[in-house]
Amino acid sequence: AVTTLPGGSASVPSRRLDGPVPLLDRVSDESCVDGTLSAPFLVVVDVEDRGAAAVGECDHFAFRDDVAWVLHDSQLGARRIDDAVARHCAIVTSPRIWPAGYAPVSMGTWGVGLYANDLAADLKTTIASVLRLPLPADEVVTMLVEAEPSLADPADESYTDAWFVVADRLHRYGIDHEPTVQLVRQLIRNGTDLQRKAELGLGAGDLRARGKILDQLQQRLTTPHPKPFKTGSLTKPQAFVVEVGDVVAYPTMEGKSANPYFKDWSSARFTPNGYGAALVAGRGRTFGYLAWYTMAVLDATWSTSPSLDVCMSRRVGELYAGTLSRSHLTRMALDHVGNVEIIALPERTWSGDHPDSAAIHDISIANHLRVPRDVTGENPTLRDLARQPS
Fold first, then answer.
1. Which alpha helices (DSSP H) does 271-390 contain, by range?
2. Which of 43, 142, 256, 319 is most exposed, with the fewest beta carbons within 10 Å of its own?
3. How far apart are CA 146 and CA 350, in angstroms?
4. CB neighbours (10 Å) of residue 174?
5. Residue 124 burial by CB count (10 A; 0-12/13-18/19+): exposed, middle or buried?
6. Rounded to whole angstroms, how far apart are CA atoms 346 and 327?
7. pLDDT digits (tens, 9 = 90+) for 364-383
């Protein structure tokens, strides 16, 4: 039987588990969304299912009610993950759930640090992306408010966290924005943040630690940073490298494209044994500068680069978004097969793979250039979605 933690417990045991984490059967789709996992379980993501999204050997998650949380080894706190990721998990059999090197984490509450929750970590990346643009401070902050809803909603539980991160990062980059500084000082002095953290379950000791961190933030904001980060690497919008309607072919190894983060195929241990193809379904620029693309991969590989006629009869997988620089295009050896007029698009419900998110985090489209496994006879062919030029 699956070992559960005490029902309703808001924390997990701190005993350590040496060696690999034992797994049981998969969590079903239903159990992730209907609340049947009412007590906290520890689960581990199947790296093969997550594919390129997996960062290490595995990520560690826990369920509380019908919400999944990921445990960080470098932070106090937890962050939510979506059900689509949570479905690809297996339950840990032992209550000794901590792999060697992990520290206890309080579940269901924020940590005390400025960056101890997922929103803060994501916002940090967004700020870094916006600061690449040649914009004055007022426009930078306006863009951030438009990109992160919690910054515009004082009732949001993450409102204070978000503004503290904005103030801290602007200071770190040597950018003076007095309205942000004044707002942050007000949120600290009137106790709004500490009150919300108490409501989220932070204990007395953690609240005192949080107060000290906020005092340190206020102190930092009184003087310019002595060694600010550099900003503004873009002077104009990123150029597009492919057109909407392009069908591109690329060498593959076991159905996957080359990893463009390596300078050559030898370094990437990439030995091509076929060709794949994809449709460029859309493109755009986040914040008007950061280029992104959406592509749908065809359900086949070929021994030689396919013609457009051959591609038209193949079925198409779902849309994915990512970035594509000129250097990545070259390293993956993307080749133009032809251009089609798109008359329909595969259905896609965007979540964490939204084009704006891909552009902000600079997630390469290469992560998705692999033969899709879930294509069936219900999927449209390229001919269903596009017309060849007459």
1. 308-312, 326-331, 355-361, 382-385
2. 142
3. 18
4. 14
5. middle
6. 28
7. 999 999 999 889 998 999 99
